Amino acid sequence: MTAAALRALHVPGKPLILPNVWDAASAKLVEQAGFPVVATGSAAIAESLGYPDQHGTPVGEAFAAFARITRAVSVPVTVDVEGGYGLPEAELAARLAEAGAAGCNFEDSDHDAGGGLVDVARQAGRIAALRAAGPDLVINARVDVFITAADQQAVVDEGIERARAYLAAGADCVYPILVRDMDVLKAFVDAVAPAAVNALYLPDGPDFAGLAELGLARISLGAGMFRHLQAQLRERLAAMAAGQRPY
């Protein structure tokens, strides 16, 4: 399946569900369960390789992990490249193509300059350069303004401004990650319609059907599955350490 087919799966109101993976084995399980796309999660991949999230993984190791995943499955793979690992956009696009990725997440957090967000015009320029270097790449532009906002209503206009700029620069989808206020998420979706919007599934938020009603085109689980399985393993290990059967 091509990047064009991946792009076609982004339908507002009929969201693509992405249970993000961290290695080839988890990717195979996602494909076997019938999901039409495999997506990686940056935190899960970084931690599975022994590194912290937010550009903690060496570039070569990150892309080697992506390539192992794309080789393991026959469905398209979209990978989370965080903020691009400091790579020029042309090199980033080339590495994604070499790894066999059909799409990528590209975020506007500035991990290489002490935190904060990349200036909106600069980030739009980076997306435009990535689009020029990878014309077929499905770009999911993350909008990180909501992550640390105490009042998400107060930053919704900035989030919408960023999303519109990224879409104009060539992004296929925008991803306002960690929006907990559903009124804010609905306002965001409506403001950028008919563009595709991705949201993060939150255990204390709406279910998939409820999120679909907001007009989303894509729902990610982020590190959710990885964290869930970690918790189960931690519980089993504690049982073993206490002398109990592991299972």
Can you walk through the features of this model?
This protein has 247 residues and is an alpha/beta fold. The protein has one domain (3-241): Phosphoenolpyruvate-binding domains (TIM Barrel), CATH 3.20.20. The protein has helices at residues 3-8, 24-32, 42-48, 59-72, 89-99, 120-133, 156-168, 182-192, 208-213, 224-241, and strands spanning 16-18, 38-39, 77-80, 103-107, 138-143, 173-176, 196-200, 218-220. An eight-stranded parallel beta sheet has the order 1-8-7-6-5-4-3-2. Helix 4 (59-72) packs parallel to helix 5 (89-99), helix 5 packs across helix 6 (120-133) and helix 6 (120-133) runs parallel beside helix 7. The relative contact order is 0.14. It holds the Pfam family PEP_mutase. InterPro entries: ICL/PEPM (IPR039556), Pyrv/PenolPyrv_kinase-like_dom (IPR015813), Pyrv_kinase-like_dom_sf (IPR040442). This is Carboxyvinyl-carboxyphosphonate phosphorylmutase.
Order of helices and strands: HEHEHHEHEHEHEHEHEH
Number of helices: 10
Our measurement of the CA-to-CA distance between the termini, rounded to an integer number of angstroms, reads 39 Å
Instruction: Provide the residue-averaged pLDDT.
Output: 97
Instruction: Find the count of extended strands (DSSP E, 2+ residues).
Output: 8
| Total domain units | 1
Strand order of the largest sheet: 1-8-7-6-5-4-3-2
Radius of gyration: 18 Å
Strand percent estimate: 5-15%
Helix content: 40-55%
Structural class: alpha/beta
What is the CATH class designation? Alpha Beta
CATH architecture: Alpha-Beta Barrel
Here the CATH topology equals: TIM Barrel
The biggest sheet, with number of strands, parallel, antiparallel or mixed sense and barrel status, is: 8 strands, parallel
Q: Which spans have pLDDT < 50 for at least 5 consecutive residues?
A: none
The named CATH superfamily: Phosphoenolpyruvate-binding domains
What is the molecular shape?
A: globular
Pfam families: PEP_mutase
Organism: Kibdelosporangium persicum
Protein name: Carboxyvinyl-carboxyphosphonate phosphorylmutase
InterPro entries: ICL/PEPM (IPR039556), Pyrv/PenolPyrv_kinase-like_dom (IPR015813), Pyrv_kinase-like_dom_sf (IPR040442)
